[in-house]
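Inverse folding, one chain.
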């Protein structure tokens, strides 16, 4: 009896998850959007999407599981054909453009804005932002825990190694690595 109830529970849970995924997928189909029917959205995503947001998704775009995606009213995200995103944070108040055939790795973060601040007297706004644009070319691969900040353009055919913080433009056909020098200092003799 426990086995039958367990199987029933799993089937109900799977059905509920598929309904949630279908509802979440519909959030990307706003009145301003052009999303190819092959778009796939995985499970367990946190989505904060305005009905006024704009999406342009090519063929075979996959936003897999456990992503945090925020797109506000004037935000626009474009993603080219055959791009795969998993376990990422994408926060868009302005515009983010991701090219074709990209692989955006686990823990990757893209922000097209930062908090507005004043120098005299010093203060950082919680709700006012300086909004920019982020553009990734075609064939960009980001390793784990890469952060891409506002007003950055990344060229085609770029590999960005794990842990990099990208705060300025990256030319095409480049490999970016995070050079952390490890100084080993013996403290027990």
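Residues assigned per position:
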């Amino acid at each position: 009896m426990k086995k039958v109830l367990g199987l029933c529970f799993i089937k109900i849970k799977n059905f509920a998850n598929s309904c949630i995924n279908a509802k979440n997928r519909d959030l990307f189909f706003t009145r301003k959007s052009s999303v190819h029917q092959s778009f796939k959205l995985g499970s367990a995503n946190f989505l904060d999407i305005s009905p006024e947001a704009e999406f342009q998704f090519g063929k075979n775009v996959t936003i897999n599981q456990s992503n945090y995606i925020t797109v506000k009213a004037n935000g626009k995200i474009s993603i080219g054909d055959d791009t795969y995103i998993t376990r990422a944070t994408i926060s868009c108040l302005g515009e983010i453009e991701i090219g074709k055939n990209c692989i955006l790795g686990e823990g990757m973060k893209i922000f097209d804005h930062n908090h507005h601040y004043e120098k005299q007297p010093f203060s950082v706004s919680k709700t006012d932002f300086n909004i920019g644009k982020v553009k990734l070319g075609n064939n960009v691969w980001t390793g784990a825990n890469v952060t891409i900040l506002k007003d950055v353009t990344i060229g085609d055919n770029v590999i960005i190694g794990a842990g990099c913080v990208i705060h300025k433009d990256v030319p095409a056909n480049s490999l970016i690595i995070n050079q952390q020098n490890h100084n080993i200092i013996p403290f027990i003799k």
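The two ends are 64 Å apart (CA to CA). The first helix runs from residue 2 to 26.
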